[in-house]
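Submission checklist for the structure archive. All mandatory fields must be present; incomplete records are returned to the submitter.

[x] Identifier: AAA family ATPase
[x] Organism: Candidatus Cetobacterium colombiensis
[x] Residue count: 232
[x] Sequence attached
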Amino acid sequence: MGKVITIKNNKGGVGKTFITTQLAAGLAYGDKKVLILTSDPQNNVFNFLFKGDKTFKKGLKAEVLKKDGEYFRLRSNLYFLPLEDVKFSNLFLKEIVSFIERVKNEFDYILVDSIPTLKIDEIFLKLSDDIIIPSYADELTTESILELLKTIDVSKVKAIVTNRYKSSSSVHKTNYTELKNDLDGTPILFTDPIESLTFIELMIQNRKTIWEYNNVAAKKVQNIFLEILKVI
């Protein structure tokens, strides 16, 4: 049976899609069959991993209700089922549970790029085996994460990873350290931060993954993701 992992933070701009796509690609390169789902109809996964025609008519909703959604192959072993819109019928919200059970028989991992979209977000969290929380080293995000940990099953939270970190910023250093101290003594992995690098911006622009590079900066980021992959 496949494992469901939701990448979750109620605050925007923390790099949920970046974290999702890099983890998914890492699993796929490790010979695991991986499916990415999203609760965001902007389907930003395309902008990270796909260079072809991203036009589609039938996505997650069609697949859940009629089993005729359009899967996009992003890499070897890595697939994406985009979302049409956020108008969810009661039938869809009921049937998505069966859909998740079905794809767990087809894929080793199902990663959910999650935004707070009412009922579907609750369902994804309930069905998840693990939760990964992306972070940004500012006060609002730190507070958001601490509040989030009060509202979800904290035993599912495997890791918190700080993204777009500026080592030259005293504000970032302070907030990163404070959150790390707040989590001290918990089983949650708190990784080294992922630096805000021009290299990563160019990587995303070229629809590449961190696993497709071999430079020093890439290896440092790869090691952070490898830490997360070890606990999921």
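[x] Structure attached
Curator remark: The mean pLDDT is 95. The radius of gyration is 17 Å.
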